[in-house]
Specification:
Layout: E1 3-4, E2 9-13, E3 15-18, E4 31-45, E5 48-55, E6 64-67, E7 71-78, E8 86-89, E9 115-121, E10 127-133, E11 143-149, H1 164-174, E12 185-186, E13 203-206, E14 211-218, E15 224-229, E16 234-239, E17 242-249, E18 252-254, E19 259-265, E20 273-281, E21 293-300, H2 323-330, E22 351-362, E23 377-382, E24 385-387, H3 394-399, E25 434-436, E26 439-442, E27 447-454, E28 463-467, E29 472-479, E30 498-499, E31 501-504, E32 508-515, E33 520-526, H4 529-534, E34 537-542
Parallel strand pairs: 1-14, 4-7, 6-11, 13-21, 22-27, 24-25, 26-34
Antiparallel strand pairs: 2-3, 2-12, 3-14, 4-5, 7-9, 8-10, 10-11, 14-19, 15-18, 15-20, 16-17, 16-19, 20-21, 22-23, 27-32, 28-31, 28-33, 29-30, 29-32, 33-34
Length: about 550
């Protein structure tokens, strides 16, 4: 069965739905060029016009189309009024951390009036990824899709109403929780369930008998999302730029930072109109969330009378706190494991890490009024280290052996052990954390296993943990405290999903494995942006290997300065 084209990506914001270093692109690949102009543009949503930061005046931003193995050159011109960087989410960037993008980790930001050229090296990625700003909360509106088609001569392996930066500044000033958003969106539109939004509701025209590939991206700052299409099943065929064994579902659950490729078969003989809907999945009942439902409309174009009928709403979209549905969906993800897309899970581990995830507090400074729990400043941590961005980038400091920028002693385990997932016992003395700029240094080629352990400190919840520079295998997950004696026996080492963002379950754990064969400096963080701001992140420094192609590339000549 052929795959019909949808001219856009499906963005969940929410969702997006998309239908000087010398680098040589892969054999048969192309070098593709794009210009990104960062500038302010006026957009009207929910009855109010606002000035937002955009790329080329578009929201969502332009889609980059490429083939596996291509080299994409993106010239970014900052015509806005604030610093900016761009990250290529899920692109491994072999040996090229200089173009990865997180501010003060691999580069200084691009200042207003400045420009920088990113070299985006596509290697093993295939399917749907995305790009976004990696500075402050700018990715709210500065984001777009990366659609990576198979190499020539190959085919798809399947058949068928406030300024968010003002919110951030206020939250940082008083150390409080971030105010919730007013709506989720699909391709930049909240849908016709919201005021002043009916005319702009995103619509997808389909023809009976055709199959459509939906490229679904969760670009939201803070929400996991359920996504469903009324009257239709979805067949999931990929995640995070890698193919999966196809499986049919009535809905998906997608975490911030993740992408899902799904087939939609237009098989309704009666035609008509059907809502595709995105609703927040919130695992922590103690946190206020935006539980609204964003909608777009699937319209059968060969049913003229049906195009005026009210759309059918999905009856199988899970409720906002339906953790069982989220867990059941995630458990079905498996790597394709075909001859052309093999699975290569490392069996022997050199570095074992147990990393606890926590929301914490820091003491309020004298003469300050703070808005966090018990009058403290809100914080977050990994292994009780609340990460602090330095004033210069870590990559440049590492490359030039500059001392005093970071400490190479991020711990392999938490500083103290307790019943991490006892949600009924959260004593105040566990809330505190300490700030630091600590990194983990790994030898080239070492196999690393990281077990992320959620904790009940100030409330257990799901966490989408994202690693730059690598795609890892999610070899295991479960609820409760990780048991190093028993739980590894439950690992899937045959066909685990190959992802760059793993959804760590509430009051549970998830284990990932990867081989440190990409030298450079790589950020690891929760993809809930408020948690990144609070310090739920760290950095891996992967040392050079001995062979020339196992060494980090030198920096380009036009790196921005701090």
């Amino acid at each position: 069965m052929g795959i019909a084209k949808i001219p856009a990506v499906i963005w969940l914001l929410g969702v997006v739905l998309a239908l000087g270093v010398s680098v040589s692109p892969a054999e048969g690949a192309k070098t593709r060029h794009h210009d990104f102009f960062i500038k302010e543009s006026n957009y009207t949503r929910l009855c109010k016009e606002r000035t937002v930061l955009t790329v080329n005046g578009q929201f969502p931003g332009p889609t980059i189309y490429a083939r596996k193995g291509d080299l994409v050159i993106v010239n970014v011109y900052n015509q806005g009024d604030k610093n900016i960087t761009i990250h290529w989410n899920g692109v491994d960037q072999p040996r090229n951390p200089w173009s990865d993008g997180p501010e003060y980790i691999t580069q200084c930001p691009i200042r207003p009036g400045g420009n920088f050229t990113y070299r985006v090296i596509l290697s093993e990625e295939d399917g749907t990824l995305w790009w976004h700003a990696h500075s402050d909360f700018d990715r709210t509106t500065v984001h777009g899709a990366i659609v990576i088609h198979p190499k020539l001569g190959t085919t798809f392996p399947f058949w068928w109403n406030a300024d968010v930066n003002h919110l951030l500044e206020e939250a940082e000033r008083i150390g409080s929780e971030i105010n919730i958003s007013d709506a989720n969106t699909i391709n930049g539109q909240p849908g016709d369930l919201f005021p002043c939004s009916k005319a702009g509701t995103y619509k997808i025209p389909v023809q009976h008998g055709k199959t459509y590939l939906l490229r679904i991206i969760n670009a939201g700052l803070s929400n996991d999302l359920f996504f469903s299409v009324a009257g239709h099943n979805l067949t999931v065929v990929g995640t995070d730029g890698h193919y999966t064994k196809p499986f049919a579902v009535k809905h998906i659950m997608i975490a911030p930072g993740q992408t899902m490729d799904a087939l939609l078969e237009a098989n309704r003989a009666d035609g008509g109109r059907y809502y595709m809907a995105a609703r927040t999945f919130a695992s922590n009942p103690n946190i206020e969330v935006n539980n609204s439902t964003a909608t777009a409309i699937v319209e059968y174009m060969d049913d003229a009378p049906g195009r005026t009928a009210p759309p059918e709403f999905p009856t199988n979209l899970p409720g906002v706190n339906d953790i069982d549905s989220a867990t059941a969906y995630t458990a079905q993800l498996r790597s394709l494991g075909s001859k052309d897309h093999p699975v290569d899970v490392p069996r022997q581990v050199d570095e074992h890490m147990l990393v606890t995830i926590a929301v914490n507090v820091l003491p309020c400074a004298p003469n300050e009024t703070c808005g966090g729990p018990d009058g403290n400043r809100q914080a977050a941590s990994l292994n009780n280290v609340s990460f602090v961005n330095p004033s210069v980038d870590i990559l440049g400091a590492y490359y030039r052996s500059v001392r005093g920028v970071f400490d190479a002693d991020f711990p392999n385990k938490p500083p103290f052990f307790f019943n991490f997932t006892d949600v009924d016992n959260d004593p105040v003395e566990r809330w505190a954390t300490k700030r630091g700029t600590k990194v983990k240094v790994v030898e080239y080629g070492a196999v690393v296993e990281v077990v992320f352990q959620d904790t009940s400190i100030l409330g257990a919840e799901n966490h989408p943990m994202h690693l730059h520079g690598f795609t890892f295998y999610v070899v295991g997950r479960g609820f409760g405290n990780f048991d190093e004696q028993k739980d590894p026996a439950t690992y899937n080492l045959v066909d685990p999903p190959h992802q760059n963002t793993v959804s760590v379950p509430k009051a549970g754990w998830a284990a990932i494995r990867f081989r440190a064969a990409n030298s450079g400096v790589w950020f690891m963080h929760c993809h809930f942006d408020r948690h990144v701001v609070w310090g739920m992140s760290t950095v891996f420094i992967m040392k050079d290997g001995k062979a020339p192609k196992a060494k980090m590339m030198p920096p380009p000549p036009n790196m921005p300065t701090c």
